[in-house]
## 1
Amino acid sequence: MAEPTITRIRECIRSLNYVVSIHAAEELDDDNITILDLENIILTGKIIERQRDPRTKEVKCVICGSTLSERHAETVVKIGRFQERCRIFQF
């Protein structure tokens, strides 16, 4: 499986081809961050770490970027097994 790139992840965001986990949505709410902020973090950010699941071999990417109000933040994103959509797990 090819490693996800920031370009591919951004394509998912721009085409609204992503889902946000319940955990990530709760974290966004707790931190007063909107979905538009989350999108901006990914669109302006860069991958700072890749984490490989030892069982499934899937790769999660930690992305660091900026909210619309220029606050620095990180999120964890995974592209589905068949590259069909991005899944945002943590914020």
## 2
Amino acid sequence: MLTKMSKGLQITIPASLRNELGIDEKTLLDIGLDRKTKRIIIEPLKESSFKTLFAKWDKIKNRTNKSVEELQREYERENMLH
């Protein structure tokens, strides 16, 4: 399927894919980059995945003096999310 980026640098996930994956406006998406293949990877997080993600953040935070916001920015930079 083809889609293009809007003027606001946003993309639309086609309805057929959203419906098949159960994605709606409340769905948290994990977006990353496969540097080897230069592909953007978008994965919807299920509630259990979301809880796992926060558990990982808690473990990391306990080993550092950084705030959750700082850790999130680092994660986004490392995974080229912004």
## 3
Amino acid sequence: MANESTLQVSFRVRDVVEIALGACILAFPTATTEEVWNLGAELSLSRAMLFLIASVFFLAVLIYGMHGHKPGDRNVFLQRVLATYGVTFLIGAALLFGVDRLELFTDPLTGLKRAILVAFPASFAATAVDSFGSAGSKE
């Protein structure tokens, strides 16, 4: 049987929920560690941006490998990559806010760097959970 794994034509609310749940799997333990808080405070913005770029790049590779790709699916592919990172980033930021480490009003740059660090591993868990849900809904 040939591999018929192709990217879904639509991006549903169910997919966003799966991404959010998957993000929580690694975002919660990552957001509650002092190492991430300290690294976010000490890391330069350019290094944090490298984490963001690496996250989006590896997400694209992972989503491409898990879901497949057709030439006409480019918009759905980009939408899935950006939505996955965006939802994961927001989940990470919300968790950091919940443990009073987002520093949104006192030091927003540090909060941004911390959220980027939390989103790095959490985005991969989000993609994995989304792929399990997508595989189950193909039947």
## 4
Amino acid sequence: MDEYPYPMNEFTMHMNSDDKIVIEKTPVMTEPKNHLWKYNEDKILKDVEDYVTSTYCSHYCGHNEAYKNTQTIDLMAAKDLAAHFCQANILKYGSRYGDKDGRNKRDLMKVIHYAMLLLHFDGHYTRKDNGLTEFR
């Protein structure tokens, strides 16, 4: 596990006595963005962002070029089923954590992602058209 604060690298270049270029790597410690966080929240948020981004090109998207940005959840939203679907999946992935494939991180990423989607579909962060313009 990475130590806190996070190590970064700084590179310097110089010529040695044989007129060859030498590149040296020096670790540089950086401060966290938020000094109040102490439970790796910044790393967790980055992992969540990476996971959510990966879902936008997954097998849940349409294969036809016209529907490549359409996900299954969009179809459920068109029928007002998305919020209940998200809530059910939070229960599904939360309850199987530790049972199926052990205490795997992917199940928790799914719980977090479905919670984010539930915040959207329950109106906490909803766009004006709820993201359904592609169905009109």
